[in-house]
Design goal:
Length: 172
Amino acid sequence: MITTFEKTVLVVDDEENLRLYLQTVLEDAGFSVVTAVDGLDALEKVKANPPDAISLDLVMPKKSGFKFLNELRKHKEWHKIPVILVTAHAQDDLGKEDFDNILSNRLISGPETYLEKPVKPENYVNSIKRVLGLEEGEPPHADDARTEIESLLDKADPGKMEQILKILKESK
């Protein structure tokens, strides 16, 4: 049985592949996920149903992550929603100024409030768990998957397992 956290994360990124990747990583970890393609779309999603946390790209068309975050922090009902920046532009010309403004104006604060792209699934999930005050570690269903694999291996034909092992070793 997969454990769910009953927490919703809004993933905001203009890159479709990355948005889908981040959504899948979070859903596999037991979170409910809503996605947005830019700051304008994200604002509409927050208005409709405020999430428990937001994963936010910095550089996007229409409304940047910086502009979205400024607007989010102005609203009494949304200003405490935890936000993690997931960006490839914290240190380059496209995003450094906005990134520095976010940190200096304390629009986000605390340790590990941003991740550099590309992100590792475990780091991403643990960062989301951290801002939500949830216990870090393996995904909640990892033990179930491990148990299922061990059970299948116990039932497997030893001859076929040797063939599979040989094929895997040859493919290295």
